[in-house]
Amino acid sequence: MEETISLQDLFKTLRKRLWLIVMSTVIAATIAGVISFLVMTPIYQASTQILVNQTERQSEAFTAQDIQTNLQLINTYNVVIKSPAILNKVIEELGLDETAGSLNEKVTVNSEQNSQVVTVTIQDPNQKQAVEIANTIATVFEQEIPQLMNVDNVNILSPAVMPANPSPVKPDPMLNMAIGAVIGLMIGIGIAFLLEYLDTTVKTEDDIEELTGLPVIGMISPIPDSDVNVANVVRTRRRRG
Predict the structure, then answer these.
(1) What residue spans in the chain does CATH classification 3.30.70.1130 cover?
(2) Long-range pairs for 80-89 at CB < 8 Å and ≥24 separation?
């Protein structure tokens, strides 16, 4: 019984403060949308793929040691691509006004498990510059890897291209608005229960029972306005009579 009453009180509070919950949800979603569309800088993305060829082997057999060696080599390449030895040359060739550290933050290098393909992804506020950086990194890496590691087994598989209608990868206004709406909903519900907790006024017989600890044995019903008006008319007539 107590759980049923508590559940009823819960929905009663939500229904009572519904306007507050809806308003906070709408306001939070609107703020998130305004920030996404007008404040946050659009970020564009470009990717290029690099193929790491397997080194020549004397035997046709492909052992587990060969697999492990190739994986370690690709992991090493992932680090070399983002190293200052490569990025500084990219900055020099493109004339970028930034450091190797700041450029490093724009570069993401991924490789699928047991795959010889390395994907270099660039995120930049300028779509054209993102494409140029991605392709220049791949070119510089292909040129420098023979000197850095004394191997020549890297080829550009798929260069980055400039799309006809570039669209930013972030921010995602719809996602941000959805997140803002959820946050606003939670804030609204929290404020609703806080206001209900702080409200100490007595409104119902249940409030009286809770405050006094005594059962309510009777209630005085409110007198309708029509009855009050009739009673006043009768009294007036009696006085005149």
Answers:
(1) 42-158
(2) 80/141, 80/145, 80/148, 80/149, 81/107, 81/109, 81/118, 81/120, 81/137, 81/141, 82/107, 82/109, 85/144, 85/148, 86/137, 86/140, 86/141, 86/144, 87/137, 89/140, 89/144
pTM over 0.70: no
What's residue 211's pLDDT?
Answer: 64
- Report the distance separating Cα 144 and Cα 139, nearest Å: 9
* For range 80-96, the mean pLDDT: 93
The alpha-carbon radius of gyration of the chain (Å, integer) is: 36
CA neighbor of 99 nearest in space, from 110, 91, 107: 91
Distance from C-alpha of 73 to C-alpha of 110, rounded to nearest angstrom: 13
Q: How confident is the model at residue 1 (pLDDT cuts 50, 70, 90)?
A: very low
What CATH superfamily is the domain 42-158? EIF_2_alpha (3.30.70.1130)
Q: What is the dihedral of CA 169, 37, 190, 8, to 10 degrees?
A: -80
What is the strand order of the sheet 154-158 is part of?
A: 107-111, 117-124, 44-52, 154-158
Calpha distance 156→52 (Å, rounded): 9
